[in-house]
Amino acid sequence: MVEAASYRFLSPPRKRQDAASTSPRCNDQETISMSPIPTLLRSLPHSARPPKPNRRVLPGFGLTLGFAVAYLGLIVLIPLAGVFLRASGMTWEEFWTITTSRSVVATYKITFGVSLAAAVTNAVFGLIAAWVLVRYRFPGKRIFDGIVDLPFALPTAVAGIALTTIYAETGFLGQFFYAWGIETAYSRIGIYIALTFIGLPFVIRCLQPVLEDLDKEVEEASATLGAGRWQTYRRIIFPAILPAWLTGFSLAYARAVGEYGSVIFISGNMPFRTEITPLIIVKYLEQYQFAEATAVAAVMLVASFIILLFINILQRWSESFGKARS
Amino acid sequence: MHNSKRIHRTSTLLVLRALLLSTPLLILGCGKKDDEASGERVEFLNVSYDPTREFYREFNRGFARHWEEKTGQRLNIDMSHGGSGRQARSVIDGIQADVVTLALAVDVDALAERGLLPRDWQSRLPDNSAPYQSTLAFLVRKGNPHNIRDWDDLIRPGVRVITPNPKTSGVARWNYLAAWGWALRHFDGDEAQVLDYMTKLFRNVPVLDTGARGSSTTFMDRRIGDVLINWENELLLALADRGDDFEIVVPSVSILAEPTVAWVDRNIDRRGTRAAAEAYLQFLYSDFGQELAGKHFYRPSNPAFLEKFEHQYPDLELFTIDDIFGGWATATERHFSDGGVFDQIFQR
Amino acid sequence: MEAKKTMHAPKLHRFRASSVPRTRFATTEHPAVRWLLTGITVTFLTVFLLFPLFTVFHEAFSRGMEMYLASFDDRFIRHSIKLTLMTAAIAVPLNLIFGIAAAWAVTKFDFRGKSLLVTVIDLPFSVSPVIAGFVFILIFGAHGYLGPWVEKAGIQIVFAFPGIVLATTFGTVPFIARELIPLMEAQGRDEEYAAMTLGASGWRTFFKVTLPNVKWGLFYGVILCNARAMGEFGGVEVVSGSISGRTNTMTLQIQQLYFDYATVPAFAVASVLAFLALVTLILKNALEWWSHR
Question: Does domain B136-256+316-347 sit in CATH 3.40.190.10?
Answer without folding.
Answer: yes
